[in-house]
Specification:
With about 230 residues, this protein is of the alpha/beta class. About 35% of the residues lie in helices and about 10% in strands. It has a single domain (about 5-220), classed as 3-Layer(aba) Sandwich (Rossmann fold), CATH 3.40.50. The chain has a 5-stranded parallel β-sheet, with helices on both faces. The longest helix is centred in the middle third of the chain and has 16 residues, at about 100-115.
């Protein structure tokens, strides 16, 4: 009997890698989707490739999206990545690492691929607990996108498909995500989170993504396998 397919957005970080593991544990065959969008931490694409291979996904597609030509973010323009922020201040406002409409764009491309693959389930590792304040990680955004998805495609209008946007991590803390991932066999030494890594890929330790990652491992009581500068 053929396994049901799911499209899973995979950046190569803690959350998306855990999401791949969860999708597989829920009986899905995974089509992983990553994006080369001009991000300064492009090394995450190698982490995504390693995770895709590690979990033996059915297919791993990398799409180029030229968001650097739009700019407007510390991840896609010559804007400094904030460093050494107090951990309690993260998420209280939308930071300069927000990439304009990124998840809307990524989910739209995932939707297109899912329609072609006849995969009714799309997984994304957004998180509304330990996160950086991005508006496109909130439950209300995901709900709105799912509504739109089921109004926007040929196969939904013809009644042949109904899309579900699955966000298994959305109400979890980073430590809870790590604990579940470890139970499901995620090798976090293969993942990458840093927004401003060295040329060799070592994490900076002090950007908001590094701080949230470090806190997650500390709270989980687990050794952080990250290679730091």
């Amino acid at each position: 009997m053929n396994q049901k397919l799911a499209v899973v957005l995979l950046s190569g970080g803690v959350d998306s890698s855990t999401t791949v593991a969860i999708a597989k544990s829920e009986g899905f065959e995974v089509c992983a989707l990553s994006f080369d969008y001009g991000q300064r931490h492009k090394i995450e694409l190698q982490a995504a490739a390693n995770i895709a291979k590690y979990f033996e996904v059915k297919e791993h597609l990398v799409i180029k999206v030229p968001l650097r030509s739009i700019g407007g973010s510390a991840l896609t323009a010559d804007i400094a990545v904030p460093k050494d922020m107090p951990i309690q201040s993260i998420g209280q406002s939308i930071p300069v690492t927000y990439v304009p409409a990124r998840n809307t764009i990524f989910l739209s491309l995932a939707l297109a691929w899912a329609e072609v693959k006849e995969a009714q389930d799309i997984y994304i590792g957004v998180n509304a607990m330990d996160y950086s304040g991005y508006p496109d990680c909130r439950p209300e955004f995901i709900k709105a996108f799912e509504t739109m998805a089921n109004l926007a495609t040929q196969k939904t209008i013809e009644g042949k498909m109904k899309f579900t946007i699955r966000c298994p991590l959305i109400e979890m803390s980073k430590s809870e995500i790590i604990k579940i991932g470890l139970k499901l066999g995620v090798n976090y030494s293969m993942t990458h989170s840093c927004y401003d890594p060295s040329d060799l890929g070592a994490a900076c330790q002090v950007c908001e993504s590094c701080l949230l990652r470090k806190k997650g491992f500390e709270d989980a009581g687990v050794l952080d396998p990250t290679k730091y500068k």
